[in-house]
Fold:
Amino acid sequence: MGTTRVSTPVPKGSALPQLQGARMVTDGGLETDLIFHRGVDLPAFAAYPLLADERGRALLTDYYDAYADVAAEAGAGLLLEAPTWRANPDWGARLGHGAADLDRANRSAVELLQALQGRYASRVEGPVLVSGQAGPRGDGYVVGERMSADEAADYHRPQLASFAGAGADLVTALTLTYPDEAVGVVLAARDVGLPGAVSFTVETDGRLPDGHRLDEAVAAVDAAAPPDYFLVNCAHPDHVLAGLAPGPWRERIVGTRVNASRQSHAELDAADALDEGDPADLAAAQARLSAELPSLAVLGGCCGTDARHVRAMWQRWSA
Structure:
């Protein structure tokens, strides 16, 4: 694994409500929703530049409003994920953004969600949390250049420090493709004093893009630097089910953010049109997956999903 230091284990009895049995709605495929349903141009698939002006902030607010409605209907809590999946140095550089620009964007994202947090508190029965969202250094569908855990911690720490400085409740890293980067995120989260969750993506066979089985990846990260919890995202529920080896490790998966499409990552990458599947079919597939994850508390969508899909999944889960 290449890890040279070990994080302090997460204390039992974490204050995060999703670890105390509170079910929490989270959002869907932000970027695909903006591009295909709202006609927004997102160079480098980055949503964070929308924070720079009032029109962009209004678009984001309208997007999150729909998920607050889902949470209110479900009688659940709400986990607001910042639109900062691409707001890291490599992707920021493609857009001409340096360290100061990224710090400003990451803080601004948390501040926007904090304002919404206050507004949604009277509409949503359960807790409302603000999560700073980190993404992989690379593409998210392929491994690309690998980092050691310490290198990954150094890489992700500035973004997580921005989240912490703005007062985020936790950090969530989505669409990670190999264990070392996940370990690095956890180390960085501990360094800046934030609870941290990490999410792997899997291919159609249930394995990570680097070839690890999902249970192997969870075990490797837990052995080096245990996060507060794990998620799986950017895969259809059937693909996640394919990777669910038996064992108590399943209890560590607290969240899923699934794709509407059954296509592989390679097929999705090459597609010209959005495959948004069928919300009812996705809800049925997610129900099969939910039944296999005893600790599941955070439920949302990823590529190709919007509030319709998340609502359908919650209606099926709450029934």
Remarks:
- The longest strand covers residues 128-134.
